[in-house]
Amino acid sequence: MLVPLEHVIALSAVIFGIGVIGAVTRRNVIVILMSIELMLNAVNLAFVGFSRAWANPGGQVFVLMVITVAAAEVAVGLGIVISLFRNRDSVDIEEVSLLKW
Amino acid sequence: MPDLGVLLKLLFMVIVVMAALLPVITWVERKQSAVMQDRIGANRADIMGIRAIGLLHPLADVLKLFGKEDVVPLGANRWMHLMAPVIALIPGIITLAVIPFAGVYDFGSGPVSMVAADLDWGMLYVFAVGSIATYGTVIAGWSSNSNWGLLGSLRGSAQMISYEVTMGLSIVGLFMCFNSLKLQEIAQAQDTTFRVFGFLEAFGWVHALPRWVSVVKLPMWGILLQPLGFILFLTCIMAENKRPPFDVPEGESEIVAGYHMEYSGMRFGLFYTAEFLEVPVIGMIVTTLFLGGWTIPWLSTQKIIGGLTGVLGVGAATGLCFLLHVLSFFLKVIAMIWLQMQIRWTLPRFRYDQVMDLCWKIMLPLSLANVFVTAIAILALQRLYR
Amino acid sequence: MSAGAVLFYLFAGFTILASLGMVLNIRNTVASAMSLVVAMISLGAIYVLLDAYLVAAIQIMVYAGAIVVLFLFVVMLLNLRTDVFPVARSRLPKLLGIALSGWGLWVFLRLLAGTLPAISPAPEGFGGFRELGKALFTRYVLPFEVTSFLLLAAIVGAVILAKRRID
């Protein structure tokens, strides 16, 4: 392997952290969805790293499943965003807080 | 770091295509359309009186575009506006890295494969890179801050991602036939011939073919094994690159130029270059997959080298074979370029809903049917040849 | 350091910069989406360096080439305005947050070092489409087929959600 496995996992952790920051801090629903995609990518990187380290193709198969699920989730999520925009003319999550306590 | 061989091959492809082919293609476009429309075409550009039948027009075009003022519309996003033509151009250039322009030769120190990057997953690389080209269209229209631009870019990107799907499916049959995604292997597999009526023997309808029937052999080219795949793939890749008759995004209304309306000067020149660069790239991909790539029909590499060795010796024979293969490859690419120009100047532009209907309702089911029929045929022939 | 390792760190740097650019860019949602594309292409390059060729090609084709285009469609169609970060009264929470996350990362990396099992050598053809295809159609065929149902459900759901009301 080109780099030690720890470095790959460290990179994955950093990207996951950045995705969490985006999902928690931003108010735009679309950017929150993009941060979720970033978190999924970080997990994919960890899977690929481990798959290469232990010569197990199962890791890469799981990455394909994650990519598929992410695609499905983005499609439905953006459909929801479009409906939300049509009803409230805004994609700010501070304005869709009806169910908050 | 990459070794010298890879660099040389890459430079050869890039220089031959961008410096040699591209200006000639713009000239061919003008002259071919002129011949088809019974007129003379552009022939006024001259250098000190020498006109050279219009071959100086590409140079005149480039000088004109450099001289124009570079306009960025008011309220447009400046960085995106600058980036979009570059994003449109890059995928065309980097596709050249995986295309084999000659076969595998042994010049004395091991087999040398004449591809810049002999990837095992070469065709997947072509698709992946082609899907990046979408962003040039998307960003160009949006960053222009104009309605026409936005509309053109939305239509263009929807068309591009729809045709990517069908493009991939239409050559699955070809991958099943040649059992590889590596472009050099696909080209090498087309180096042989097959008996046309061999299937009669395979199905057991005839015990052994008489010799005079057996001698009818065709080169094992992709277009003969997968004719429907060829038609579908050619249509899809022309639609993917927004080549007429699929050029709704850029020629809509004939008055406003769609997504590259707000570009002028050399930035528009980059879009123009990107579109014209795709013409030989499409030609090269289709040639490699369907027309046998660098192979010469009915004369396999073995035969050529074997035949010439007696006269010239092994090294020189291999070198001559290499040159013949390069010549054969570029002749086929030129034929494909001619075909694309013919199609462009023959068919009127499709309407946008016709374009999307064609993709999802006609070509997608046809390509799926192609996959099924190819799979059944391969299984039947394998079972019977066992 | 071999050329591959230099490339890995280079692409790792691109990924981190692009992700930060995506998350911290308030003014322009399209610029965020383009930063996400850069991050995904860099990750695709890292997958190639880690011998996962099919996954890299699919990452660029599907993720960078279709999913983010979908994001861009929605952003362009909805013509969104700029965003604002929530207003903080003092800078202390920001600095504290950065310090705590840095410390958390350091603890995580300290725990990680030396606990991972040894690396086994990769067999020939690992990560290529043939090996992965065989695995997908023999050992992992059930998840593979189930994802097709998932995609069907997603298509139907997305069409219903985004369709215009015809009344």
Report the structural category of chain A: mainly alpha
Summing up helix and strand content along with how strands pair, one would put the structural category of chain C as mainly alpha
**Total tally of structural domains of chain A:** 1
**In total, how many domains does the architecture of chain C comprise?**
2
CATH architecture of chain A: Orthogonal Bundle
Number of strands of chain C: 0
Gross morphology of chain A is elongated
What's the β-strand tally of chain A?
Answer: 0
User: Please, how many helices of chain A?
Assistant: 3
How widely separated are the two ends of chain A? 51 Å
CATH architecture of the largest domain in chain C: Up-down Bundle
Strand share of the residues of chain A? under 5%
Helix content of chain C: over 70%
Which term fits the overall shape of chain C? extended
The major pleated sheet of chain A works out as: none
CATH topology of the largest domain in chain C: Four Helix Bundle (Hemerythrin (Met), subunit A)
Keywords:
heterotrimer; A: 101 residues; Helix Hairpins; 76% helix; 0% strand; B: 386 residues; mainly alpha; two-stranded antiparallel sheet; 4 strands
Q: Could you explain how this protein is built, in words?
A:
The complex is a heterotrimer of chains A (101), B (386) and C (167). With 101 residues, chain A is an all-alpha fold. Chain A has one domain: Orthogonal Bundle (Helix Hairpins), CATH 1.10.287.3510. Helices cover 76% and strands 0% of the residues of chain A. Chain A has 3 helices and no strands. Chain A has helices spanning 5-25, 29-53, 58-88. Chain A is elongated and about 50 Å long. In chain B, strand 1 (104-106) and strand 2 (111-113) form a beta hairpin. The model of chain B has no long low-confidence stretch (mean pLDDT 85). The longest helix of chain B is centred in the C-terminal third of the chain and has 34 residues, at 352-385. Chain B is mainly alpha-helical. Chain B has one domain (68-385). Chain C is mainly alpha-helical and 167 residues long. Chain C is 73% helix and 0% strand. Chain C starts with a helix and ends in a 5-residue tail after the last helix. The model of chain C has no long low-confidence stretch (mean pLDDT 86). Chains in contact: A-C, B-C. Chain B binds chain C through residues 1, 77, 79-80, 119-121, 124-125, 127-129, 131-132, 134-135, 138-139, 142-143, 150, 153-154, 157-158, 161, 164, 181, and chain C through 3, 28, 30-31, 34, 37, 41, 44, 53-54, 56-57, 60-61, 64-66, 69, 72-73, 76-77, 128-129.
